[in-house]
Amino acid sequence: MLAFPAAARAGDASLVVREVPLRGERAPAAAASPRFDLVGLHWRGPGAVSFSTRSLAGRWSAWRVAAPEAGDAPDALSGEATRTASWRLGSPYWTGPADGIRYRLHGRVTRLRAYFVRSRAVAIPPRALSIAGSPLIVPRLGWSANERIRRHPPRYAPALRLAIVHHTAGSNAYSRAQSPAIVRAIEIYHVLGNGWDDIGYNFLVDKYGRIYEGRYGGIDRNVVGAHAQGFNTGSVGVALMGTYTSRAPTKAALRSLEKLLAWRLDLAHVDPRGTLTYLSGGNPRFGAGVPVFLRTISGHRDTGFTDCPGNILYRQIPNIAIAVAKIGLPKLYAPLVTGRVPGLVRFRAKLSSALPWTVTVTDSQGVLLGTGAGTTAKVDWTWDATTYDKGKYFWTISAPGVRAATGTLGGTAPPLRITDAMAQPPVISPNGDGVDDTATISYTLSAPATVTATLLDATGVTVSTLVAEELHGVGPQSFVFTGDAFPDGSYTILLQATANGKTVTASVPLTISRA
């Protein structure tokens, strides 16, 4: 259970939490509040909440829904998602200086909590840096990120596969000096309010065209964010600051977004105009394991039930992809190496135009062992490594003017392990009320393996086989457990993974209780 302080200060920003008294009325009385610049609401129950805020001049704003972008969230089975799993989380809304708020309830809401963030604007413009050939980016230090409140070290995906475009769904009426304060306020709300490890987005772009580093971990690394539930691993989430449902982003914001995506996708050798199939990690729209066809540059609404990034911005994504593809040419896309040593090893890639390309292979001492070349837009060369021993080898695919692709072959295979095994929720009540009727069993494999999952009762006797010798690849895995056919009690799900004659196990405790 995560306990939230009534008030907390984090550097140049502070957060105050207030419980909103609910006495059954649809519109709780307007309440004075501490002065704030950003507000976010949490509530319990299947209903919805809207709110209006009062400026320091005494003017009330239009009514706004509390969770327009509910899919801005960590993956459902991650540790940071479980800290507030019983609450519905509203989006952080930048109001500008305000001192009052009123609420409207729609449907059943049993509890309501308000998070008020004060984040002061600073007149000194933040310093921007270029790293690894990036466009100018304001680092975390530049917007005064509070590194003391980060909960856990960053997690990294093995590869970057796509970019997801968002809007923050806050006010568009902010000044240049307020932009760093908005980023800082979102960080405070995401971490101290929602209980996440860090700010959810990987990058943010203001309407003036300034780019801000988001989640900690390295702008050139595949940091797993908390911006698109079920699709965070292997994606980079970029949020334009403001609401773009009926208003177009500024030209400065679009140009910076395009430059950022061109650089970040080029680092990963991903074609901005490509497509892919992504297996969802699970969210209300796409259950865990559902294949979803996406564009390399997608809008948040492509991955879940949300209007993000707003109708106007979403309609511009095809043109954004075209513009991104034209920046920084020539480029190298989709390097792929198949085969192993000893044997035949095939190297493939695609160039944005016909160029003289070269593939080289060296040993651990840098000695050249093989080389291939061509002059077309298609890279395709096979290295005959039948006479070489097992070991670690290094390869490079290069062409004039492109960012070279590099990698390794061989080396020691990682030991087979099952890690991060858990049930979410750990207690289920399969009584058909739609609440906690099932549990998602998740785990991670360090290497491809054949997996069996069995259900054991409290005495260790096998009750049922849930997964029977299914082949799974390396990385996160999951399946849904339905307890309808089993009586109440304490159980254990035994996971067994087998590869190359070795078997490893992991146990997941689970309770069925219809009480």
Which terms would index this structure?
mainly beta, 5 helices, 515 residues, 31 strands, 6-stranded mixed β-sheet, 8-stranded antiparallel β-sheet
Which parts are unreliable, with pLDDT below 50 for 5 consecutive residues or more?
1-5
Supply Rg. 25 Å
What quaternary form is this? single chain
Major beta sheet summary: 8 strands, antiparallel
Number of H- or I-type helical stretches = 5
Q: SS-based structural class? A: mainly beta
Mean pLDDT: 89
Describe the protein in words.
The chain has 515 residues and is mainly beta. It contains 5 helices and 31 strands. The strands form 7 sheets. Strands 1, 2, 3, 4, 5, 6, 7 and 8 form an 8-stranded antiparallel beta sheet that branches. A hairpin with a 2-residue loop joins β30 (489-499) and β31 (502-512). Mean pLDDT is 89; it is low at 1-5.
Brief summary:
The chain has 515 residues and is mainly beta.
Secondary structure layout:
Blueprint: E1 7-10, E2 13-20, E3 31-44, E4 48-55, E5 64-65, H1 79-82, E6 88-89, E7 93-106, E8 111-119, E9 137-138, E10 162-167, H2 179-193, E11 203-205, E12 211-213, E13 235-240, H3 251-267, E14 275-279, E15 291-295, E16 297-299, H4 311-315, H5 317-326, E17 332-339, E18 344-351, E19 357-362, E20 368-374, E21 378-384, E22 392-398, E23 405-410, E24 418-424, E25 427-428, E26 438-445, E27 449-456, E28 462-472, E29 475-482, E30 489-499, E31 502-512
Parallel strand pairs: 9-12, 10-13, 10-16, 11-13, 25-31
Antiparallel strand pairs: 1-2, 2-8, 3-6, 3-7, 3-8, 4-5, 4-7, 11-12, 14-15, 17-18, 18-21, 19-20, 19-22, 22-23, 24-26, 26-29, 27-28, 27-30, 30-31
